[in-house]
Structure prediction request, 215 residues.
Amino acid sequence: MIIILFGPPGAGKGTQAQRIEKSRGLVQLSTGDMLRAAVAAETEMGKAAKAAMDSGSLVTDEIVIGIIRDRIQEEDCKNGFILDGFPRTVAQAEALDVMLAEQGLNLDAVIEMKVDDEALVDRVCGRYTCAKCGEGYHDTNLKPKVEGVCDVCGSTEFTRRKDDNPETFGSRLQAYYADTAPVLPYYADKGTLQQVDGMAAIDEVAAQIDAVLAA
Ligand code: ADP
Ligand code: ADP
Ligand code: ZN
Prediction:
């Protein structure tokens, strides 16, 4: 199964992708995570992407299309994958169609997560993750069961993204409306677009996604 989780920064794409990965045995492919790994490793790609990421604008289509093209050919993607944060432009959506067709693969669902702008800024600025296992948390919406201790791995170290601040969030939301939202009619025209209420509680959003995937 191949699924796209679509939505603005903070919509809950990563949270739901992690859950689908566990429940359905699909691989989460987050271009944001892959780019941050490249920046941390100081690869050529990371150096080329860093300035755009820090300022909250989009990395070039060429870079992210190349990342996805290589990644979906790896062995662990054979059972299917969840695209989290890709495609983010119409050019990326078109390139994805070409690469899926080349490999004889079919897109099963594009799920748009709709969330109000005011809720997004709170979600993004309160977001943090376990430094060891990557489990996602939130200052008020999703705290670990024991304060300061990761539920999954017991680590007591957490990290926050440099771009998760109100200023950079503003640029990211602008990029979403200017370049990414135009991808929605692209999939609507193909009949693959579905929506869930991303304002609902995390478990409820997961249930809505399950219902979409079961239909
Ligand atoms: P995205 O990957 O779309 O940028 P995340 O999945 O990282 O978004 O979610 C952003 C923040 O909001 C995280 O801290 C997460 O715990 C929290 N969050 C995710 N889904 C919900 C929800 N349905 N209700 C409240 N908070 C949520
Ligand atoms: P969020 O979870 O808030 O939606 P991501 O982790 O997906 O953010 O992305 C972080 C940053 O990485 C983006 O602001 C952008 O600079 C870059 N990025 C990630 N995916 C893409 C993409 N598909 N196209 C262009 N830039 C991307
Ligand atoms: Zn952990």
Summary: The longest helix spans residues 166-180. The chain has a mean pLDDT of 97. Residues 130, 132-133, 135, 150, 152-153, 155 surround zinc ion (ligand 3) (CB under 6 Å).
